[in-house]
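Table S2 (text version). Query chain:
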Amino acid sequence: MIITACADRESARVIARMLVERRLAACVQALPVESTYVWKDQICVENEITLLIKSKTALFDEVAAAIKENHSYEVPEIIQCPITNGYSEYLRWIDENIWGGITS
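Corresponding structure-token output:
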């Protein structure tokens, strides 16, 4: 799973749809969050949309590149969290809906 945060719902939808259309992700969930962070020596508190991107480890570089080319942030959050276990039918569904079933 890859995570990124977007400034608003519309930009999140653009990135989510692009990733699914390119079959770099089987599913992208969008969640509203409030983020507190330091940017250029200032504490910021902003409403954002977090995207939970269901993809594969082997596609991280391509997903990250696609996010960067469509993201409004100077330094977007793009992190990967391994899925170490899950419902086998759901994991199989992810495999079947990403670039012809890439594994790992």
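Notes on Table S2: Residues 2-96 form a domain with the Alpha-Beta Plaits fold (CATH 3.30.70.120). Helices lie at 9-21, 60-70, 88-96.
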